[in-house]
Amino acid sequence: MYLQEIKEQLASMLEVVPTDFVYPPAADLGDLSLPLFALAKTRGLSPVELAKELAASLKESPKFIGVVKNVNAVGPYLNFYLDSGNLVSSVISDIEKFGIRYGESDNGHEEIVMVEFSNANTHKEYHIGHLRNLFYGDTISRMLRLNGYQTIPVSYINDFGIHTAKTLWNWRRNPEFAAQDGPKGRLLGECYAQAAKELEGNEEAKVELAAVMKQIEKRKGEMYELWKETREWSISYLDEIYQRLGIKFENIFYESEEIDEGLRMVEEFLQRGVFIRSQGAVIADLDEYGLGVLPIIRSDGTALYPAADLALARRKFQAYDINESIYVVDIRQGLYFKQLGKIFELAGENFNITHLGYDFVTLKNGMMSSRTGNVITYAQIINEAYTRAEKEIITRHEDWDAEKVNKIAEALTVAALKFEMLKISADKVITFDMEEALRFDGFTAAYLQYTGARIASILRKADENIAADYSLLIHPKEHALAMQLSQYQEALVKAGAQRDPSIIARYLFELAQVVNDYYHEVNILKASTDEKIARLGLLRAVKQALANGFRTLGFAYLEEM
Asked: Can you say whether the dihedral through the CA atoms of 537, 543, 547, 553 is positive or negative?
């Protein structure tokens, strides 16, 4: 694409690499800048002297003419000014050529990567913290695919842990839960939170709990039958969530389907000396590697979650022939995935396991916990967000019918939730603020979607889509807009390499700001015929880039709002 080609041409002339170029902090300093510290060291000159020497020689070079308009030495930097007409024409041509695929690369070389995310628990409430995992994993899968990887998005549902026994223990003790109206999958979460509180310090109840867990693991008895019934409620509830939020998995694994093979692997690893028995339990002693001790089987004989994880990890690499397995799990599990990787290394199975951690989502009054019930549940947040979006749409468009209001409000709701979870780097805490998430200005999805809708409105009024002379577009705002558009592929490549969706979110926000400045300052529909046609073509290019970016983050481009 245009910008990459320019960098490669300049890099070849200057004996540097394209990634050495940076962007000046202000437009009047140029479009590209080359720091000369490293190059000056190899040539035995000061960076300032080298900058002056190279600027003078480049201005006399035939290869330089036509590539850029001018070059200046600014201290230890070479600053390049691109020709506006060539820049705008080339960038629009790229976007028109590639369309929906604009920005894609083949950096992944078709390697197969499985991305595991949304590892929710049955029998628990789905809350706002789960949404960060869901949206992060979904976008990572999509970004890697756009960068040339074959991605397999999957989910692994914990339907067999001690939490299920806690919920069932309390469900049987409190029949009022079953008597309530509403989605049973959601009621199970309320039941679990109550159970967690009542079990604290209750040793007698913990004995009852162990008996419930053993029935579930042995797959027989009254509590096992209740487990099967309630498990389906949870799975149906999760399916509804995924469908509404536009999340698709190629496969969903369940702990209950992996545990038997996991227990066989535990015995295998015991025989091979990877695991040992300790005080009636089975553990992986990894102290000598600085990784502590990982319990695998409790002293009462019940399995912990690593048992099933072992089976699933081996299944992924053997059955799917993947190059890498990415686990999107919060930062608290960082040690665990190092332990899992070391276990397989000791077993002679060097699987390429990557943990993508992310920090917490907090409320203004502190941390969230499904155990204590101090959460914003998925149901609460989606309903409140939709209600606010619907109210805003009705205020703006009293003439719209209910179906249209619902469609736009739903799109705004999903976009707002996704963008709030993706615009912050995964290593930073999110303090969720509903007021901020649904603002129609600032760093929000609604601002981006509103920008897109305004562009669509202008294009509808013009209704012109004929050949244009883009060399006419020499206004500084058009130059700035084309430069921003030219950097979309770089943003997508960087976001994929760093596995950081916030890079795309920030890029889209900056593009929206530039295009808003443009149509506030530059007359489009009232320009001369040739200029108008060219400017509409530039807006169509912006629309395509925004639509591609929105799709990358998983939300809709709205033609009206």
From this structure: positive
Does the domain at 383-553 match CATH 1.20.1250.20? Answer given as no
112 Rama class: left (phi>0) / alpha (psi -120 to 50) / beta:
beta
| CATH number, domain 117-256+305-362 | 3.40.50.620
Q: What is the pLDDT, as a whole number, of residue 366?
A: 58
What integer is the mean pLDDT of 132-160?
97
**What is the structure's pLDDT at 467?**
82
pLDDT surpassing 90 at residue 507: yes
Domain range summary for the chain, segments of one domain joined by +: 2-82, 117-256+305-362, 383-553
What is this structure's pTM? 0.94
Q: For every residue of 145-161, which 3-state class applies, written as one string?
A: HHCCCEEEEEEEEECCC
Pair 340, 306: CB distance under 8 Å = yes
Q: Is residue 549 within 8 Å of residue 502, measured between CB atoms?
A: no
Residue pair 142/555 in contact (Cβ under 8 Å)? The answer is no
The DSSP 8-state label assigned to residue 102 in this structure reads: T
CA distances from 206 to 125, 175, 195, 446 (A): 22, 20, 11, 48
Strand order across the beta sheet in which 276-278 lies: 276-278, 281-285, 293-297
Which residue in 340, 523, 558 sits closest to 446, CA to CA? Answer: 558
Tokens 């070389």 belong to 109
Q: What is the pLDDT of residues 335-374, one digit of tens each?
A: 999 999 999 999 999 899 999 999 999 876 655 554 445 6
Cβ 128 vs Cβ 368: under 8 Å: yes
CATH of domain 2-82: 3.30.1360.70
pLDDT of 249 > 90? The answer is yes
pLDDT digits (tens, 9 = 90+) for 417-449: 999 999 999 999 998 887 888 788 899 999 999
Q: Could you tell me where the beta strands, DSSP code E, fall in 75-149? A: 77-81, 112-116
Q: Return the percentage of the chain with pLDDT > 90, whole number.
A: 84
pLDDT for 62 beyond 80: no
59 pLDDT band, cuts 50/70/90, is confident
Cα 198 to Cα 423: distance, rounded to the nearest angstrom: 38
Tokens linked to 360: 């917490």
CA distances from 390 to 67, 328, 376, 402, 551 (A): 50, 33, 20, 10, 22
Average pLDDT, the chain: 94
Work out the burial of residue 121: count CB atoms within 10 Å of its CB; fewer than 13 is exposed, 13-18 middle, 19 or more buried: buried
- Tokens encoding 474: 């020499």
Domains 2-82 and 383-553 share a fold: no
